[in-house]
Amino acid sequence: MADAIDDLFRRFGKAFNKADAEEIAACVTDDFEWRLNAGGAPSGRVLKGKEGLRAHFADKSTAHREARYSEARIHRAGDKLFGTFRVTGIDHAGKPFDRYGIDLYEVKDGKISLKDSYLKAE
Question: How far is CA 4 from CA 7, 21, 95, in A?
Fold first, then answer.
């Protein structure tokens, strides 16, 4: 099972680096939930399902440009997985950024069902 999880996260990471919403959607469950690191609610803005994911990547008004993910590592903790990473790019206001982050993941039926994101603030 570890090899299948590793393959899933490699595929997911490559798709994320390319902002390939269709390939990302292929890696997640139909009831996927992505808790973004920003938003007014305690859990941040929450995207639900593959359509929520696709809509997020289609909305260029808040998108980071030239976002590149590096130093990515997956850590297992029981039935949870943590991904640590570094992201650089240009934010929606045109300012360069360079931050570290962590995502909590849950996997169900061989696909990602939850991505709960945390990113270092400015």
Answer: 5, 21, 38
